[in-house]
Amino acid sequence: VSVADVLPSEKRCWDSNANQDPDVMATQPHAALMCAMLLFPGVLRSLLEVAGAKFDGPPPAGSPCSDTWNKLFSRRPFSACTEFRHCKHYLLHANLGDAYCRHAVHFWRPVAMQHWLHACAGRLVKMSESSLFDGELSEARCIWSKASLGLADTLASDYSTFNTSEVGPDWKPPSIVLDMTLVDVQEDFGLRQQQDFHVEDEESQLLRALRLSAATEGARQRRTLVEQQDADYQESLLHDQARVAG
Known about the structure:
Shape: rod-shaped
């Protein structure tokens, strides 16, 4: 992978003739990953932290670079990462990067992917050891940091209030969706309350009817019992009077 392959450029991504070259196609994934590292080095660190990588431990097995992650991050182009963040959308880029790390960490956690990350990061550091190449990389990042992005309007309007909790364990809905549906939710809640109120009235009426029916049946049973007791009493009284008279 050459410096020209890594530099952010639409031509690098959309040159149809180059895409037909097997050698170019073989290097494109590595170049794209290194370009992403060059523009968003903070995302690389966050991704490694979420993945549980050991920054001061030995490099991933099989990586052609023997430096630890800490050593790589202490060298250019990673050591100057804050100098070239986008002047307008840097905070949103950080939030989106953090969200990506949380959501895609399972893809980057395997040893093979850690090996790929480390090898590409090591290659970038090797490029920056040359003052000429480092100058080209720095100039490209500086131009990008001040450029108008293709998704600038979308970033400014739809993602201006983006929060990483939208991809967290609770999957909180985006604030723009909450704002759009707040009135509907309130109206639905009021309607549910009215419906529940009517249901409760019907249930109350049914309970009252049941209580009334039970009370009526209880009263009937008590009257029957009293009448039976009165009859038994009268019969016993007549029996006693006959025995005394006889």
